[in-house]
Design brief:
FAD/NAD(P)-binding domain; alpha+beta; UbiH/COQ6; 9-stranded mixed beta sheet; flavoprotein
């Protein structure tokens, strides 16, 4: 390749993976006066983008506060639907739990967005930032480690780019190539389930209710979108998933109706369906030689409690705090000390979230009769115990954890002003 086709650039932070976690991280850290590169293999508004598909994601109250502090919430608020009520039930059993925003003096328990709508908006905003350089579509071909920086070789159409960066963030998904290139082992546990994803239209207005219904085959989550539209996550075994995806639209709606019931009236229409396998992936180390794992590259969770992206946002906010501290004390942002401090600050949240998500998955995917009776009794009792319900509501809103600056409403812009 001709020498003129090779470019070399230096950055403070390079983020590999431009999904929701990677894109938000790039925007966040650029506010600290850092020069940021964002590398993504697939155009974010293209049909092949698995990062920005039709999936509905429930944002917790703490996630919304982080978006507000970053200045992104005003850009996506109109695309979100509030969750004012949550209904949790176990099919075939009388136990249930309900949560209402008004009981906790909040406007909403959370907000629902779809990735295909919000992702491109964040990318459009990123491209307007002078301190962010995007490489898309581009792929990392080689990684070289040095004492003071990490060097990435990128291929971008007919051009090769060499990037030198003090810190590289691997936000390249569950099967992270950067994690593999850094010899970071990942513990993988399959749940023997797939999530069937779609949007449905219902006869009744959802009135801002979100539903989690546990069945013998797996949980069903319905998240409110527009008045009669809901985002569906239906967890099933491999064999059941194949059967379900093969159904015509009307037959699919009938099967879902049988599993979910008629709380929303007749299920009238369903969009194009997709699916992905469900498993627990946990990186055994979170960083190696200036490469830090974030998002699904660090921890991929079952969607039963909708905590994956919310956890990723809390990671971004915590790393933001560590970077501010390093900058204020004239320390290396990619040093072992800086990254170890970040990991230490996140251990409790990671452990609690993984344990809660994994336990829920195993307890509610088990049809052992004594366990079914126990969980049904627990849900009935929970609905009658205000303190226990508040604990559940606080967990759903992300209010039961140590808060970062961003989650407390302190913007990066105010931090920069104070430092200057």
């Amino acid at each position: 390749m001709a020498e003129s086709q090779i470019s070399q650039t230096q950055f403070d932070i390079t983020i590999v993976g431009g999904g929701m976690v990677g894109a938000t991280a790039a925007f966040c850290f650029s506010q600290l006066g850092l020069k940021v590169a964002l590398i993504e293999a697939i155009e974010p508004n293209g049909e092949d983008s698995s990062s920005f598909d039709s999936r509905a994601v429930a944002l917790s109250a703490s996630s919304i506060k982080i978006f507000e502090s970053l200045g992104l919430w005003p850009l996506i608020r109109s695309l979100a639907c509030p969750i004012n009520h949550i209904h949790v039930s176990d099919r075939g059993n009388p136990g249930f739990t309900r949560l209402h925003a008004v009981d906790y003096a909040v406007d909403a328990l959370g907000q629902v967005i779809t990735l295909e709508q919000v992702g491109p908006v964040i990318w459009q905003t990123i491209k307007k930032q002078k301190s962010i350089t995007t490489y898309c579509p581009a792929k990392v071909q080689a990684v070289n480690h040095y004492n003071d920086w990490c060097e990435l070789t990128l291929s971008q159409q007919d051009k090769v780019s060499i990037i030198q960066s003090r810190l590289v963030i691997a936000a390249d998904g569950t099967f992270s190539q950067l994690a593999a290139a850094s010899d970071i082992e990942v513990a993988r546990t399959s749940y023997q389930q797939h999530a069937v994803i779609a949007n449905i239209q219902t006869q009744k207005n959802h009135e801002n209710w979100a539903y989690e219904r546990f069945t013998a085959q797996g949980p069903i989550a319905l998240l409110p979108l527009s008045r009669h539209q809901m985002g569906l996550v239906w967890c099933q075994s491999e064999a059941e998933k194949e059967t379900t995806l093969g159904l015509a639209d009307e037959a699919f709606c009938q099967a879902l109706q049988k599993a979910f019931g008629y709380r929303l009236g007749k299920i009238e229409k369903v969009s194009r369906r997709s699916d992905y396998p469900l498993s627990l992936h946990l990186a055994e180390r979170h960083f190696e030689q200036r490469i830090l794992l974030m998002g699904n590259a660090a921890h991929t969770l079952h969607p039963i409690a909708g905590q994956g992206f919310n956890l990723g946002l809390r990671d971004i906010a915590a790393l933001n705090d560590c970077l501010i501290s390093a900058i204020e004390n004239d320390q290396d942002i990619g040093s072992k000390a800086t990254l170890a401090g970040y990991v230490d600050s996140r251990q409790q949240d990671w452990q609690q979230t993984v344990l809660a998500t994994d336990s829920l998955t195993r307890v509610f995917s088990n049809d052992f009769l004594p366990l079914v009776m126990l969980r049904n009794k627990a849900m009935s009792c929970l609905n009658l115990l205000p303190f226990a319900k508040r604990q559940l509501a606080d967990a759903a809103m992300g209010r039961n954890l140590k808060s970062s600056r961003l989650a407390c409403g302190i913007s990066n812009k105010s931090m920069i002003k104070e430092a200057s």
